[in-house]
Amino acid sequence: MSGAAARARRRVLWMNLLFSAGLALALPWFVAGALAHAWVPARGTLWTTHHAYAVRTFWFGLLGMLAPLVAPGVGLGLLAVVWLWCAARLARAWLAWEREEWITDPGRFV
């Protein structure tokens, strides 16, 4: 693995760790989202798909966190659904990271 690809793999590792911690605490979620946006993925490698996947996961998770504020009556239920959805996406991200695989169609909902 080239130096750029190894660096990109480590970056994806940190994003996944922070997103996973963000399922319990909100602050790591925001840090992971900032890193997903700030770090430039290794273009042309499989890690590019991981970055796109992380950015999409961040924004949907953020919208889910805001649901209780926007719609107090159904917001907590929506928050639970979004939390489960984010947990499923993180499981998929971890599996792809561990296997060093592309995330096919990172724009999918799951």
From TrEMBL:
UniProt entry tagged with the keyword Membrane: yes
Transmembrane regions listed in the UniProt entry: 60-85
Assigned keywords, A-Z: Membrane, Transmembrane, Transmembrane helix
This protein's record includes keyword Membrane: yes
Protein's recorded name: DUF4870 domain-containing protein
Lineage per the UniProt record: Bacteria, Pseudomonadati, Pseudomonadota, Alphaproteobacteria, Acetobacterales
